[in-house]
Amino acid sequence: MTRPRPLVPREDPADSVRVVGEFGVIARVLARAGAAPAAEVGPGDDAAVLRTPDGRVVATTDVLVEGRHFRRDWSSAEDIGHKAAAANLADVAAMGGVTTALLVGLACPPDTSTAWLEGVATGLAEECAPLGAAVVGGDTVSAAPDSGAVVLSVTALGDLGGRVPVLRSGARPGDVLALAGRLGWSACGLAVLRRGFTSPVAAVAAHRRPAPPYAAGPAAADAGATAMCDVSDGLLADAGHLAHDSGVVVDLDRTALVQATLEPPGPLQQVAAALGGDPLAWVLTGGEDHALIATFPPDAALPDGWTTIGAVREAPEGPAVLVEGEPGEIVAEALGAEGTGHVHFR
Amino acid sequence: MTRPRPLVPREDPADSVRVVGEFGVIARVLARAGAAPAAEVGPGDDAAVLRTPDGRVVATTDVLVEGRHFRRDWSSAEDIGHKAAAANLADVAAMGGVTTALLVGLACPPDTSTAWLEGVATGLAEECAPLGAAVVGGDTVSAAPDSGAVVLSVTALGDLGGRVPVLRSGARPGDVLALAGRLGWSACGLAVLRRGFTSPVAAVAAHRRPAPPYAAGPAAADAGATAMCDVSDGLLADAGHLAHDSGVVVDLDRTALVQATLEPPGPLQQVAAALGGDPLAWVLTGGEDHALIATFPPDAALPDGWTTIGAVREAPEGPAVLVEGEPGEIVAEALGAEGTGHVHFR
Q1: What's A33's DSSP letter?
Q2: What domains are there in chain B, each with its CATH number?
Q3: Among A91, A103, A345, A346, which would you mutate to test the B interface (most chain B Cβ atoms within 10 Å of its Cβ)?
Q4: Distances (CA, A) of A339 to A226, A237, B19
C-alpha cells in the first residue's frame, strides 16, 4: 500500500488526544464500548474479569497499522473499528468459538482527534454487539515520536461452548474442503481504491468492512469439521497453512470455486473487466475478507452457508495447494495475480 | 523521553525481518516462547485455547512504544521483553490473579533484526516462566511506513483461583493502605540514564527490568484486601485512582513511607545526592516499578511483603491523596518532583 496522505488536519484539533489527555480519551472511548454480558469486571480497573463457562477461553491478537492495513482517507474511523474487530472475531470463529470480549491496545499520535478514536470504538462495538461481545479493556498510549501513524492491536477472547477446538492440523485425505463467506471482494475493493475510484460500492464496502461468516465457525465444529482456518492472507496462502499443518494436499475444484465465489456475476467481474484482469485471481489470492475454509469427513452434511470447493488428498510429495492438479501459484500467476498471498513485510 | 538515537544498524541485517519474512520471524520467536501448562492449544493456529479452571479469566493489555516506553540503546531486547511482560503480570496480580498466558502484538520496521526480536521473546518468556505462564499467540506486522519504531502490545490472561477480584473501588474509611514492592527505583534509573550514566547499577537495572511483587497480589486478596492496584503511573497518581474510584481520601504516612521505601539507604539516596534532589520525589511520583498498593480492613493481618504506609479516610470534600494532611502534589512539587504522575502524551 502506498504511503497515506495525511487525512485529518494535523494541527492539534481542540479535541486532540494531547489536549484531552489519556484519561479523557479513555473515558470517551469507553462510552462507546457497549457492555459484555460475560464481563464480571469491565473496563477501568487494572484488568477485566470475564466469565468462561466452558472452562476454557479462546484468545487471539491482530495488529493493524495505519498505512499498512488501513488508510484514513480510504476508510472511516468506524470502518477501521469494524475491520479490526472482524479480523479477530473471524479467528475465534475459525476455532469453533464465539467472541465474548475484546481488549484494545492503541498507539496514536498526540494530534489524533478523539472524535476519530470514538469512531473506531463505535466500529469495534458495532461489529461485536451481534455476538454479545464488547470491549472490556485496553491501553492508549502515544505513538512513537517519529510516527504519525495509528497502531491498533486487538485481542479477542471467546467461548467454545463445549466444542472441541478445530485446528488447522486435522484435515485427512478423503475429506472435502468447504468454504463459507466471500473471497476476493476486499482485494477487488482495494484495487478500486488504489486507482482512485470509489465504486462499485459493494466492493469498496467489502474492503472497508469485511463481513465474515462468524456463525459458520461453530456450526462447522458442530458438524464435525476436521480442520478450519480463516482466510486472512488469501485462499492459496491459508489453504497452504492448512495443508502444511495437516500434511496433506488440498486440491481446489475450479468449477466449484467459481460457482461458490463468482456466481451470480457481480462487482468482481465488473472491476476485472474494467481493469483487464481475471476475477478468479482475487478469489485465489485476495486476503482480508475473512471467509472460513474447513475440511469435513466425506459423509458429513455441510451446515448452512458452507459449499464444497475442493478435496483433501494424500501428500506423497509434500503438502501443497493445487487447482485441479496444478500448483495454485502457477494458476494464480497465469491469471495475473499480483502475489500469491498477503505479504506483511515490504 | 527524548527521541531515541537509532541503535541497531539500520541497513537491513542478514537476519532482518524483511529478509526472513513474517513466518520465519514467528517461527524463531516462538522457539523462545516456552510452554504454558494452561494452554490446550498453543501458538500457530488461528487462536490459542487456554484452560480457565476458575470459570473466569483475568485479561489486561499494555502497549509499549519505542522512544516512549523504552529505548534500544538503554535497554537490551531481553530487558524490553521482561519489562513488557512485567507491566501486564502486575496488572493481573493487582486483581488477585496469577498470569497463565500472554499474547503479543508486534509492529516492527522491516529492518529489525530477528535476533533482537528473539531477545524480546526470551525476555517475555523469562519473566513469565516463574509463574508458569508463556506466550500462546500473537501477531507480527510491519511498522508504519513512516516509522522506525517498534510497538509492542502485550495481553496477559490470568486465573483468580477462586478469589474475589480486588477492585480499585472497594477502599473504605478506616482501612489501612499498604505497599508491596519498590517505588521510585525505575524513575531513579531513568534519571541516571538520561544523564548518560549507567550506574548505580541497581537503579538502572530496576528501570530496565522492574521486579513487581507478583505473589503479593493473590496474597492480599486472600487476606481480605478491600481495594488494590499496581503502581504504574506513580504512587500519587495510582493512589489517586484508588481514592477516586472508592470515593475516599488516602492519607500517606510520610514516616512509614520513607521507612518502607528508602531504608536502609541505597541508590535512590546516592543518585538524589549527586543530582541535588530528594529521593522521596521519586517515591511519590515515579512510575513503572509496578509495586502494588492495597487497602485492608483495620484488623486484617497483612501478608508477608506488605507494609502499612497510610490510612483511608472519609472524603467530605471529595477524593484526594494527602501526605499527612497536605495535598500530595504540593508535597511532591516542594520536593522537586518533575511531574506528579507518569504522563503518556507529550
Answers
A1: S
A2: 17-159 (3.30.1330.10), 176-334 (3.90.650.10)
A3: A345
A4: 29, 10, 17
- C-beta atoms of B94 and A48 within 8 A: no
| Closest alpha carbon to A339 in A282, A291, A288 | A282
Contact A217, A325 (CB under 8 A): no
Burial A21-51 (b: 16+ CB within 10 A, else e): bbeebbebbbebbbebebbbbbbbbbbbbbb
How does pLDDT run along chain B (346 residues), one tens digit per residue? 333 344 444 556 788 888 887 777 777 777 787 889 999 999 999 999 999 999 999 999 999 999 999 999 999 999 999 999 999 999 999 999 999 999 999 999 999 999 999 999 999 999 999 999 999 999 989 999 888 899 999 999 999 999 999 999 999 999 999 999 999 999 999 999 999 999 999 999 999 999 999 999 999 999 999 999 999 999 999 999 999 999 999 999 999 999 999 999 999 999 999 998 899 999 999 999 999 999 999 999 999 999 999 999 999 999 999 999 999 999 999 998 875 544 444 3
Complex confidence, ipTM: 0.92
Chain A residues with CB-CB distance to B143 below 8 A: 65, 147, 151
Residue whose entry in the numeric block shows the C-alpha cell 531504608: B263
